[in-house]
Amino acid sequence: MKLFILCSVISLALSGRVCLPKSWILEWSFPDDSHIDFSLTLDSQTLSSYDWVGIGFKYITDGDGMDKADINNFFLTSIPVDSYALISAQPCLDTYFGGTEDILNAVYDSTTLVYTWTREIDSGDIYDKVYTEGCSMKLLWACGMVDAYGEQLMHLDDDKEMIDIILSADYDYGCVTEF
């Protein structure tokens, strides 16, 4: 396990990244021809104020809104699950639609507030996107609460956003480097 975490840290040193509102940082790298590694760093305020976080991807041609989004859905402090938004509403597990669970090697480090996980570049699941290095995609993020039954509630307008990104190792968006 330590070797996996060390390899993940080294591979993320040559990674693309997006600094999101709420002080989140999403990073990715392509460790080989078949996989993409992700790292999501949250802040303590997110963990104390929300119950779930979603990080999703869509092709640029899929348009705006949540529909057609491949979503990594996190009930906070648990590992992410592979979800899909058929419409602009709560995403469902890929397995609900007949797809497969394709999040690999998911780890949550409660000390650093970092989630790491791997996806196949092309899982073959119709509910997953193909994560081609250098491709343009829409990145969606959101966070919110769950109800008394543990069901995911809709996010508020200030707790979501969609931006266009490029999945490349040299991509950097919204991050400020201090010297």
TrEMBL record:
This is DOMON domain-containing protein. Residues 1-15 form the signal peptide. Coiled coil: none annotated. InterPro entries: DOH_DOMON, DOMON_domain. Keywords: Signal. The keyword Signal applies. Residues 22-144 form the DOMON domain.
